[in-house]
Amino acid sequence: LQLVESGGGSVQPGGSLRLSCAGSGFTFSMYWMHWIRQAPGKGLEMVASISGDGGTIRYEESVEGRFTISRDDAKNTLYLQMNSLKPEDTAMYYCKKDDFLGQGTQVTVS
Q1: How far apart are CA 23 and CA 84, in angstroms?
Q2: Are 50 and 68 in contact (CB under 8 A)?
Q3: Cα separations (Å) of 108 from 8, 20, 83?
Q4: Is 55 exposed, middle or buried, given 0-12, 13-18 or 19+ CB atoms closer than 10 A?
Q5: Alpha-carbon distance 105 to 52, whole Å?
Q6: What is the pLDDT of residues 40-69, one digit of tens each?
Q7: Which letter does DSSP use for residue 75 in this model?
């Protein structure tokens, strides 16, 4: 099983980034997928989740209306579109399936 995140970077407040997570080694379309993050000195925080069929989506309250999670099962890829970024969104962002995390991609807003 492998999850590979990409798309992080440095952006000014109010900017946008699109994160991607390529999954392999499992039947991607069958699983809930999640984005979680860890800010410096803090614990892991769930950001957004999407069901296997894409019909159920959940967001952490602080990102509701700014972030959009989506998936393309034909490409085995999970996305997180992040708009109106704030300094408090600065964190390492991870793709998650069950208890497995990718290596993460850094997002810095300043």
Answers
A1: 27
A2: no
A3: 8, 16, 13
A4: exposed
A5: 23
A6: 999 999 999 999 999 999 999 999 999 999
A7: T
Largest CA distance in the chain: 38
Query: First and final CA of the chain: distance in angstroms?
Result: 34
Residue-wise pLDDT tens digits, 1-12: 999 999 999 999
Residue 64: is it exposed, middle or buried by C-beta count within 10 angstroms (0-12/13-18/19+)?
Answer: exposed
SS3 of residue 92 by DSSP: strand
> Any residues with CB less than 8 A from the CB of 13 and at least 6 apart, and which?
85, 86, 87, 109, 110
**In whole angstroms, what is the distance from residue 80 CA to residue 71 CA?**
9
How many CB atoms are located within 10 Å of the residue 41 CB? 5
- Report the SS3 class of residue 28: helix
**Contact indicator for 18, 7 with CB cutoff of 8 Å:** yes
